Predict the structure.
Amino acid sequence: MCVLGDGATNQGAFHEALNLAALFRLPIVSIIENNQFSFCTAVDSHSRYRQCLAPRAEAYDMAWNVIEDGSDLLLLREQLAPVLQRARLRQGPTLVEIATYRFYGFTLGDANSKKYRTPEEIQWHRDHRDPVFRWEKKLLEEDLLPPRGRQQNPEDLSPTGHGRRNRICRNESSPHSG
Ligand SMILES: [Mg+2]
């Protein structure tokens, strides 16, 4: 498995690698982490493929897939499972694109990070596609995480958080345990 950014799909090495992987039917899963920006350039400003980038795999007769919501961890695992299985069965390479969003600048020096997208766009993603918030919500729904503000076990507040993790690992009522 290899992971690359959306900007890397415009580099020659990416296409050389896809060509060879397809030619030799290598068991490689290439994942494009499409966070919508290559430094400060939006995807629709650097690619004719504006909705997604994975269809570029068709040029190499390679299987491809797009996961349109990369902020849902369980959905991500579910949708990646058959792709990984395909590689394990040596059925050839796959190019997978996972849609996500970068809330902050590319680097600390990216002072214009709030200039090449609108505050409303950033807020929409924070409200609907923040993986940390969604995961916390899921854990709260399954009673695997104490609600914020409730008195917490001091062990949960330890730097290592062993107490909380151990309780989560021991919860056998979760449909996702095991
Ligand atoms: Mg990017």
